[in-house]
């Protein structure tokens, strides 16, 4: 994939750096652009911005550019960047924070299927308290419209009894649902500080464009 | 020795044989594992990818139960281990986080129980002496690539399990079982687990790199301690083969399965019948089954 050329004249929002540092709990401002994070990143070959470019744009306050990129969704959360950063910037936590902020500011995820997957995963946990892999897979396939890939592994898995047919609902499911609801309440309150008119994360059902945007490559 | 056991969701599905072999091996070693009652999902990548608070509150619900049991926790799944341990760390080190987690949890949670990875408990805490005293067979010099992946070892400041670039825990175990751990560069490379369903081809590429590195080092088998590592290297090995045009045919074992074999347990009790790449061929060659 061709890499984006970093445009340093992008719109500056100085408050954004502070917001990201607060959300991520790390000093993004310490980065001196050595590039070690990108060199360590196993998935940089599919990213549109290298990890250090994302970090630089955050330093510059380029909110829009950062929250619209694919990289924050493609990050596999392996924390190689965090482990190796000579300036002790927690790059992986920054990626987490940027995904959360993208939701808070109502950005359409640049990698639709990945965002949908996370949403379905959490819906699945909220329903029964534990993840039911087969149920998640089936729903994801229906939502993505990609019904037939992976059948070559799915069917043998069934034969081997590696996909439990039925979900298991825990006894304390009400507690789990209450927990989800309280987290949501806290985050909606926090999103009150976001740009007016923007939606809180998860308030909005993904649009048809979300579902189509970013076929599995 | 007794621990609160957090199986995690995968261990009743895709990683059934990891659960089976863990419980069997623990029984033989006299390591007591007591399930955390009514435990819930740790939230995995999807929780921390979208909400920091949710990613701490979900594990906290199960960890609060471990606190009540008065036991430290062992998590066989590397992803669960990572999320649970991160929660203990965050709650212990930040009063504000602790308060907020308690609020959304609706109960007191003091992060008293610590969380350990299964290989840490078996190899470093239970100890190799106890294991070698019980061995019935030796791996006969089997060349094994120990694959740790990312979640077990990183970030090392929080996981405190082993060296993040060149961990040795599984290598020491393999050596104690009479195998020969190979020196190879992909020990802690990421397999792309969180993209496995949504960006399958990325995982094929990462798996191909890891499998090739193991093959170049002369490995006859790969040993893992994570359901996602196992499925990406075993289940997706055939796909990665078709996609890349390379051939490997390397069996991928949970470390508890190889340990179980050396303890003289039959393959059926270790779930060795549910792998994609034939797990029995190498074991037969070494007269282990
Ligand atoms: S490794 Fe750290 S200092 Fe180097 S570019 Fe990445 S974030 Fe910046
Ligand atoms: S955590 Fe994300 S950005 Fe960092 S090295 Fe891993 S995949 Fe790349």
Could you give the topology of this structure?
The complex is a heterodimer of chains A (217) and B (289).
Chain A: H1 14-24, H2 36-40, H3 51-60, H4 63-67, H5 71-74, H6 80-84, H7 91-104, H8 112-128, H9 133-144, H10 151-159, H11 173-191, H12 208-212
Helix pairs in contact in A: 1-7, 8-9
Chain B: E1 2-5, H1 16-29, E2 32-35, H2 44-50, H3 52-69, E3 73-75, H4 78-93, H5 95-105, E4 115-117, H6 118-126, H7 128-132, E5 143-146, H8 156-159, H9 169-176, E6 180-181, H10 200-216, E7 221-224, H11 227-235, H12 237-244, E8 252-254, H13 255-262, H14 280-285
Parallel strand pairs in B: 1-2, 1-3, 3-4, 5-6, 5-7, 7-8
Walk me through what this model shows.
- The complex is a heterodimer of chains A (217) and B (289).
- Chain A is an all-alpha fold and 217 residues long.
- Chain A is 53% helix and 0% strand.
- Chain A has twelve helices and no strands.
- Chain A has helices at residues 14-24, 36-40, 51-60, 63-67, 71-74, 80-84, 91-104, 112-128, 133-144, 151-159, 173-191, 208-212.
- Chain A starts with 13 loop residues before the first helix and ends in a 5-residue tail after the last helix.
- Chain B has 14 helices and eight strands.
- In chain B, 48% of the residues lie in helices and 9% in strands.
- At the A-B interface, helix 6, helix 7, helix 8, helix 9 and helix 10 of A face helix 2, helix 3, helix 5 and helix 10 of B.
- Residues 37, 40-43, 51, 75-81, 91-92, 95 of chain A line the site of one iron/sulfur cluster (SF4).
- One iron/sulfur cluster binds at residues 37, 40-43, 51, 75-81, 91-92, 95 of chain A.
């Amino acid at each position: 994939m061709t890499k984006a050329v970093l445009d340093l004249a992008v719109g500056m929002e100085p408050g954004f750096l502070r917001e990201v540092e607060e959300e991520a709990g790390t000093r993004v401002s310490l980065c001196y652009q050595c590039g070690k994070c990108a060199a360590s990143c196993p998935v940089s070959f599919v990213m549109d911005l290298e990890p250090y470019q994302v970090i630089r744009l955050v330093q510059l306050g380029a909110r829009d550019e950062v929250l619209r990129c694919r990289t924050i969704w493609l990050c596999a959360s392996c924390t190689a960047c965090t482990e190796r950063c000579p300036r002790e910037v927690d790059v992986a936590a920054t990626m987490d924070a940027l995904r959360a902020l993208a939701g808070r500011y109502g950005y359409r995820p640049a990698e639709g299927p990945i965002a949908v997957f996370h949403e379905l995963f959490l819906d699945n946990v909220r329903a029964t308290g534990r993840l039911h892999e087969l149920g998640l897979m089936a729903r994801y396939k229906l939502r993505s419209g990609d019904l037939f890939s992976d059948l070559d592994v799915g069917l043998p898995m069934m034969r081997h009894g590696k996909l439990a047919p039925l979900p298991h609902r825990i006894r304390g499911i009400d507690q789990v649902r209450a927990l989800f609801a309280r987290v949501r309440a806290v985050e909606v309150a926090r999103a009150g500080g976001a740009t007016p008119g923007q939606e809180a994360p998860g308030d909005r059902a993904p649009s048809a464009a979300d579902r189509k945007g970013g076929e599995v490559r | 020795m007794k621990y609160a056991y957090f199986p995690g969701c995968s261990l009743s599905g895709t990683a059934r044989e990891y659960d089976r072999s863990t419980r069997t091996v623990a029984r033989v070693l006299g390591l007591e594992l007591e399930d955390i009652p009514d435990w819930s999902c740790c939230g995995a990548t999807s929780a921390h990818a979208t909400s920091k608070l949710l990613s701490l509150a979900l594990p906290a619900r199960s960890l609060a139960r471990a606190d009540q049991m008065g036991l430290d926790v062992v998590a066989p799944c590397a992803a669960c281990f990572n999320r649970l341990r991160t929660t203990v760390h965050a709650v212990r080190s930040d009063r504000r986080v602790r308060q907020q987690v308690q609020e959304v949890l609706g109960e007191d949670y003091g992060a008293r129980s610590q969380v350990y990875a299964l290989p840490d408990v078996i190899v470093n805490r239970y100890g190799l002496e106890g294991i070698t005293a019980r061995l019935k067979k030796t791996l006969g010099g089997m060349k094994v690539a120990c694959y740790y992946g990312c979640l077990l070892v990183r970030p090392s400041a929080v996981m405190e399990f082993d060296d993040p670039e060149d961990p040795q825990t599984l290598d020491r175990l393999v050596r104690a079982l009479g195998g020969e751990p190979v020196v190879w560069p992909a020990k802690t490379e990421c397999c792309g687990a969180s993209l496995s369903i949504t960006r399958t081809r990325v995982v094929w590429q990462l798996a191909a790199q890891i499998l090739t590195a193991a093959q170049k080092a002369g490995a006859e088998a790969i040993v893992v301690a994570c359901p996602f590592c196992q499925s990406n290297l075993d289940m997706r090995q055939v796909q990665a083969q078709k996609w890349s045009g390379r051939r490997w045919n390397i069996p991928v074992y949970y470390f508890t399965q190889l340990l179980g074999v050396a303890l003289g347990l039959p393959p059926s009790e270790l779930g060795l019948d549910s792998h994609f790449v034939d797990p029995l061929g190498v074991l037969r060659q070494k007269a282990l089954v």
